[in-house]
Specification:
Blueprint (H helix, E strand, L loop, with lengths): L1 E3 L9 E4 L4 E10 L8 H33 L5 H22 L4 H10 L4 E5 L14 E4 L13 H9 L10 H12 L6 H16 L7 E6 L2 E6 L2 H8 L7 H12 L3 H4 L17 H32 L7 H7 L1 H17 L3 H10 L2 H4 L7 H18 L10 E5 L10 E4 L2 E5 H4 L2 H4 L3 H10 L17 E3 L2 H7 L2 H5 L3 H8 L2 H13 L3 H10 L4 H6 L2 E4 L5 E4 L1 H8 L2 H9 L3 H15 L11 E5 L2 E5 L5 H19 L3 H16 L3 H7 L22 E4 L4 E4 L13 E4 L7 E4 L4 H28 L12
Parallel strand pairs: 4-5, 16-19
Antiparallel strand pairs: 1-11, 2-3, 3-10, 4-8, 6-7, 9-10, 12-13, 13-14, 14-15, 16-17, 18-19
Helix pairs in contact: 1-2, 4-12, 5-6, 6-8, 10-15, 12-13, 19-22, 22-23, 22-25, 25-26, 26-31, 28-29, 28-31
């Protein structure tokens, strides 16, 4: 059977370097690619979602997928080796993210304050977002007001004084292009000069590459490609001597760029309309206010893009917004430049760049901005403005983060991944969180040094399949993993003879006594085979055994399960089980310990003859012994830690112990005798955090290891998951009951062994 592996190809937050197999956890700072598309509140929420559970959910899901895949692959398989390496890394991240849950805010503030390729800007809209917070802005203007409510920003005031009166003269792109070409052509230009300059200006003004050296002529369904030179144009246009450069420009545009104007967007400044005629006084006032605000934001947004460009290229380290706010004269002059450009129908962006070139000293520019600079600034301005105005999230236009996608080296710390601007977790991890795996996170930072700015959405080389026979598959997976298989695979497995044996073992390990007995009854011809055949299975607490059902039940001290299994054994099966139990109880001369059963749990191998109640009893004892002192001293953390130890031990008990807690018709106070003929196989408890019924097993993250809660029975009608600060008397009752349960079940083991001996059956009884 070809079984698809489970490791996800496009997991949230997780990137695998295909060259090194290094796992990178990418922390989303804000949504967006080249510029943030979320406001400050949403950016904060996204970080909170990551550290308050989102990352751990993804990591744990990824871990489960890896564990599933590893179980399917043979030892030494190259895919398995790579997956085991990734699993170890995922586990390192799980610990580190958990340790960072209370400190991530300071870590993010620190990295945003350092030089990098992510630049924060803060504008001043007329209606401000009071929640706007920016760390180390490259550009901002004063957002405050004086006591009378007058804005303290000279630039803002200058724009609101002048822009209401502007009359925008929009020129069409063709006229704009022809004027630009004619302005830079050399004297007495050749035809080749005209072609070259026309190509350059199309790229400069519109960011569009046009081939002015060929004419693509459509004839019916066919397209012919003709080289274009002066003679070709003269022939088509019947030009003679004295043809002007402007005429040649017009002809080249007609024959080589017929559809150019469809491709050219209107510049952002010229998308702002003049005030319509026929408005009422109130409507006109509102229209003027709205238009003034749009022009103000456009001007600030262009200045911010220019400021980011200059910082990224090393042209200036100054905040031009702060400089303009310190100089009313510069603010007034800049505003007048924008006003006049709009009134003349010329490029506002080029006019502003010319203004800064005239004031390089005041703005700390190391050199003038050339045409290539101006073009790059304008193109990024247009792209980013279109991005942020395409969503309603930025209705206030308060603050943004702009990513330098061309950055390299140490400053290129921020990347884009799956629609968000991210930073590698290793860049923000604090020393405490990194302490357990310091060398690993150092290696991750080194591995990320040569990353692309745009991280692929999918991880290469992850997808795969494995070929397995049904019996091999069933031997390698547990029943939870079985449920993850495709339905077609599960159907094949259910029809396989080995499935019943596998299901039987899992039912016994999960305390599903009725289901296990039903399998024995339904398969009467193979009952003894089911009872005698060992197999690999995993119980609720993650212990993986390779033994028979009776051996596990005996090891777990599940008296009720053992009695049921014994009822279906013939003498030969009883004899075999007796031999197996004797071997479990045999003392190894080399170690002085019982041979017991071998099992794996949490990646380690263990051996014991029986489940040991001691860790649970000791955890109860520590909690009870320390509670009064801790409570008197208000040492809540100590109480919580002791409570958590109890819950950790409760998570490790076999199913039948949890089912003793969960009996709905019998509490733990007064202390029960634990001699009922039937054990109700219930695992339900009341979750006092969610105020709903929950289940003890299988273990879930909804009642995990991050809170001071413990499962309590005492005299309550149902077991409840409760805070450890209010339950000391209840835990005392539970401690006494569990200690007695251990005693009773240990004594039961002697009788269980006797019942496997046919000669002893006639006189032995259960009490």
């Amino acid at each position: 059977m070809r079984i698809p592996l489970s490791e996800p190809v496009s997991p949230h937050y997780i990137h695998i370097n295909p060259a090194t197999n290094r796992v990178h956890l990418l922390v989303p700072v804000v949504s967006g690619q080249e510029i943030s598309t979320d406001n400050t509140c949403h950016a904060t929420t996204e970080l909170k979602d990551f550290f308050d559970g989102g990352a751990l959910r993804e990591l744990n899901a990824y871990k489960s997928a890896l564990e599933f895949d590893i179980g399917l692959l043979e030892e030494g398989n190259l895919q398995r080796v790579a997956k085991e390496e990734r699993l170890a890394q995922i586990e390192a991240y799980i610990g580190a993210v958990s340790a960072m849950q209370q400190s991530y805010g300071d870590a993010m503030t620190a990295i945003l304050a350092r030089p990098s390729n992510l630049y924060s800007i803060q504008l001043r809209p007329r209606e401000q977002d009071s929640q706007s917070r920016v760390v180390n802005p490259v550009f901002n203007i004063n957002r405050g007001n004086d006591a009378r409510g007058t804005p303290l920003s000279p630039l803002f005031n200058a724009m609101y004084a002048l822009f209401p009166n502007v009359v925008i003269v929009a020129i069409d792109p063709k006229t704009r292009l022809i004027q630009a070409v004619l302005s830079v052509l050399p004297p007495s230009p050749t035809f080749q000069d005209i072609q070259r300059v026309l190509t350059e200006q199309c790229q400069t003004l519109f960011g569009i590459t046009v081939d002015f050296n060929h004419h693509f002529k459509r004839i019916n369904e066919r397209v012919e490609k003709h080289p274009v030179d002066k003679a070709y144009i003269d022939g088509l246009m019947r030009y003679g001597g004295g043809t002007s450069p402007e005429e040649y420009v017009d002809a080249l545009l007609h024959f080589c760029a017929e559809n150019l104007w469809i491709q050219i967007p209107t510049p952002p400044f010229y998308k702002v309309s003049n005030i319509a005629e026929g408005l009422t006084l109130g409507e006109k006032r509102n229209a003027i206010t709205e238009r003034t605000e749009r022009l103000s934001i456009l001007t600030q947004f262009f200045l911010a893009n220019m400021n980011v460009y200059c910082r990224a290229k090393g042209i200036s380290i100054q905040n031009v917004g702060v400089i303009l706010d310190k100089s009313p004269d510069l603010s007034n002059e800049l505003t007048a430049i924008v006003y006049m450009a709009l009134g003349a129908g010329v490029s506002v962006e080029n006019s502003v760049c010319d203004f800064f070139n005239a004031h390089t000293a005041e703005f700390g520019l190391s050199r003038s901005l050339n045409r290539q600079d101006a073009t790059a600034i304008q193109q990024k301005f247009e792209r980013t403005y279109q991005t942020v105005t395409a969503t309603k999230e930025n209705s206030h236009m308060d603050d943004f983060m702009i990513l330098d996608c061309e950055a390299t080296g140490e400053t290129a710390q921020f990347v884009t991944h799956q629609g968000a601007i991210c930073v590698d977790f290793a860049e923000i991890i604090d020393p405490v969180a990194a302490s357990a795996n310091r060398d690993y996170f150092d290696a991750i930072r080194a591995d990320f040094a040569n990353h692309p700015i745009e991280i692929p959405q999918q991880n290469a080389g992850i997808a795969g399949v494995v070929d397995l026979e049904p019996e091999d598959l069933l031997a390698r997976i547990n029943d939870d993993q079985f449920e993850q298989l495709p339905e077609a695979i599960k159907t094949i497995c259910r029809a396989h003879p080995g499935f019943q044996a596998c299901q039987f073992l899992h039912d016994v390990a999960k305390g599903r006594q009725n289901e296990a007995e039903a399998l024995l009854i339904a398969n009467s011809a193979s009952t003894q085979t089911l009872l005698r055949t060992p197999g690999i299975f995993t119980d609720y607490s993650g212990r993986t055994f390779n033994c028979t059902a009776y051996e596990y039940a005996y090891w777990a001290k599940d008296t009720h399960m053992c009695r049921m299994l014994e009822l279906h054994m013939d003498d030969e099966t009883k004899a075999e089980m007796a031999a197996r139990i004797d071997e479990m109880e045999r003392i190894d001369a080399a170690t002085g310990q019982s041979v017991g059963l071998v099992y794996q749990q949490n990646g380690a191998e263990h051996r014991s003859a029986h489940f040991d109640f001691t860790p649970l009893k000791q955890a109860y004892q520590r909690y009870l012994d320390g509670y009064d002192v801790w409570h008197a001293a208000q040492r809540w953390a100590a109480i919580d830690a002791a409570c958590l130890d109890v819950y950790k031990a409760q998570r490790d008990v076999p199913a039948h112990v949890a089912q003793e807690y969960c009996q709905s018709d019998r509490a733990f106070f007064p202390k029960p005798q634990f001699n009922e003929a039937i054990l109700p196989r219930e695992l339900t408890f009341f979750n006092s955090k969610t105020h709903q019924d929950d289940v003890w097993f299988p273990l879930t993250a909804s009642h995990g290891l991050d809170c001071a809660y413990v499962l309590v029975r005492a005299h309550w009608p149902l077991v409840a998951w409760m805070s450890g600060r209010r339950i000391v008397t209840h835990c005392a009752a539970d401690f006494e009951a569990i200690s007695y349960l251990d005693t009773v079940r240990t004594e039961d083991l002697t009788i269980l062994r006797q019942h496997l001996n046919p000669q002893a059956l006639s006189h032995s009884t259960w009490v």
